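User: Fold both of these, please.

Assistant: Here is the first one.
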Amino acid sequence: MKKAATARKAAAAGKPAAAKPRLSKVGYVILYVKDVRESIPFYRDVLGIPVRHADGGWAELETAGTTLALHGCGEGPPPLPETAPGVVFTVDDIRASHAALAAAGARPGRLHRVCAYDGKVGLSTDFKDPDGNPLSVYGMVPEGEWKE
């Protein structure tokens, strides 16, 4: 009711009513790295993410809907707080992905439970890129297949 009254007042005063932004898709996630050229092999070869574009201090990696960008910042990114946001990749087979990450040298942590719903358990593993950016891989397994 209050929104409608505000919109009517704005219209009566000849002003357009303020519209809420319609944010629906995350287009880019930007990670700051010391050297883009040195960081690309980790994302391309270890994580298997295709490079769409790389030019000097900027690279764009294609992650099925959202572009993961690497932005060079010279001396390296500042240390991140423990509560810094991280990038979470979703996968169909979390166990196979965990094993593949370990074999490729990504040094993932142990699989741990992060949620449960609809008869499934969400599992995640955390690791860092060479610049210390927090990354995770997440996937669901049937509830009966997970023992803590």
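And the second sequence with its predicted structure:
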Amino acid sequence: MYPVQWSRSARNDLAEIWLRSDTARRKAVTQIVNEIDQRLAADPIGAGESRDQGRRILIVRPLALIYRIDPEGVVRILSVWTSRGS
């Protein structure tokens, strides 16, 4: 298992999404955040797609996020936003 850490910026992004959401969407976001944490902890390379500068993208609607895997094996979530079509 890989440790997963949300950057301050990503936590702020998530808080903004939460505040803009209605009750049903908040419940969905909470479930999806738990799913993201589990997927990244289990297999961060297989969970997302490769991007430049060692970053990866993962889309779990309605969220999308950018993360990287440090040389120490820590998964760091750098930013999160609502994906298109959400």
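The CA atoms of residues 16 and 81 lie 9 Å apart.
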